[in-house]
Amino acid sequence: MQMQRPILPPALADIEAIAREALERLPDPFRGWLTDVVLRVEDFPDEDVMESMGLETPFDILGLYQGFPVGEKSVSHSGALPDIIFLYRRPMLDYWAETGEALEDIVVHVLVHEAGHHFGLSDEDMERIEASVE
Length: 134
Fold this sequence. Notes:
The chain is mostly helical.
């Protein structure tokens, strides 16, 4: 009898690879404007994020943009930390299991939504960009 190996969920690196591929498919000028934004994939938000956003559980958020939107940047922000897009693996995996949506679609949706915050875009703008990535 041959034993089956357990199927492991996608790792942090797998989610990051999906996100980086999606970034490459973003339309020009957006792709270029995101080159200085740091992409971080973590299992969960940290305690500071949980508290500042009033989250009940770490599963209540799929991603987060931290930084100053493009239209709000000024010389007074020099020396500030870089803009960061966080993708939270475990909440995305739970959402994937609950909905049955393709994991790539979920990652792309969250990435584009958070990038939209970087640009100060409306939800409609974000939907158009997401459709161009698919």
